[in-house]
Structures are given as C-alpha cells and as structure tokens.
Amino acid sequence: MEYVSSLVLIAVSAAFINNFVLYYSVGICPYLGVSRRVDMAFGMGCAVTFVISIAACLSWALTVFVLRPGAPLATWVWHWLRPDSAGVVDLSILNYLVYIFVIASSVQFVEMYLRKFFPPLYKSFGIYLPLITTNCAILFACLEIMKHVSGVPAAQLWDLGRALALAAFGGVGFTIAIVLMAGMREDLDLCDVPQALRGPGIALIVAGILAMAFMGFTGVDRNLAALLR
C-alpha cells in the first residue's frame, strides 16, 4: 500500500502540482508553437508523453546499471578489463550525453512511426516534431529521475515504477497544459484582441494565467498523502 501511495503522489505531483510547463517553465517552445489547434496540441502531447516515457525507462536503466557511481555493469566490465584495478567506477560525467542520445533516438522512432501511419499529423507538426529532441521537459524528467537513483542511499533509490510514473504523468501534465492552451487560443481567434497583444503577446499572458490557476493545486499532495495513510 505504501508503494502504491508513493506512485499516486508522484503522478499527481508531476501532472498537476509541479507541472513541467506551468511550474518549472520547461518545454515552452512546443507549448507555444503547437498550441494553435486542439487536435494538433493533443497529438503533440501524446508524442511527448510517449517519448518521455521511453526516454525515462532507458535513462533509468542506464543510470542504475552503468552510469551511477558503483553501477554493477560498469564495475563488472572495468574489473574484467583491468583485474588488478580497485575503487569505484563512476561514469556519471556521461549522464547528459547519454540522456540526449536516448531522447534523440526515441524522437526518431516516433517520427518514423507518424510518417508511416499518420502522414497528415506528421505534416501538421512540421518542424516541431524533430524539435522534441530539444524539448527540455524530456531532459528535465531524465535529470529528475537521476537525482533519485544516483548518489542516494539504497533505501531511497527509485525503482523503474517510480521513474515511469514521474515521466508518464509529466507527459500527461504537458498534454493537459498544451490542450488547455490550444482551446483558449482557438477562442481568442474569435475575440477582439488589441493589435499590440496579438500573437505571442496574448499567448504568453494566457500561459501566465494558466500557471496561476495551476497554483491552486499547491498542497494537494500533502492532503492526499494524509488520506492514503
């Protein structure tokens, strides 16, 4: 029960309380660039959720078994190559490089899949689909997972379930935020917006209002934790 409660708290926090876009302000480029239509925004949200989940799983496995100090696979390979060596093997300096490679590979997979099975959606994304590679929300999720699997006591080490919960529901939170933004921007097309605020100006104002609205979820995690005890 305690494990399930921790998964629920991580999921609710990632999706609503600490929303990647509206709380940490990461992933702003696709958030503003692909939020003109609801269908396109929903497709982008699903693509980001899929990529962030795959990247988080691979990043967790690589960090736990290869990159973190004393990782078993890296230690075994090093001692096999250098039987007379001693000490802890630490490849954490490669974290950023490995995470970016994993994210780029996942994006390429999604791009090939959409091109093959959903050509209209692939064309509607345009340049923003390859730009998922540089979406800092995905790298942010990988780095958040790294903080809980590298340099922490064994009792506090996150397993794959917690890492996947953070990534998947972080993607869900991104989808919720971008779909809400797209719905508001579609309505704004029918409104008399002042000339000086049209385009990015009104979009940034709406994003700020959404961010303040999501601040209303602050403290929900504490109440939910007390309820799940």
Structure summary:
This protein has 229 residues and is an all-alpha fold.
Provide structural commentary.
- This protein has 229 residues and is mainly alpha-helical.
- The chain has helices at residues 2-17, 28-33, 38-67, 72-81, 95-117, 119-125, 136-147, 160-188, 200-214, 220-228.
- The longest helix has 30 residues, at 38-67.
Strand content: under 5%
Note the gap between the termini. 9 Å
Give the CA-based shape.
globular
Helix content: 55-70%
Helix run count? 10
Most strands sheet: none
Core attributes:
229 residues, mainly alpha
Question: How is the topology of this model organized?
Answer:
Elements: H1 2-17, H2 28-33, H3 38-67, H4 72-81, H5 95-117, H6 119-125, H7 136-147, H8 160-188, H9 200-214, H10 220-228
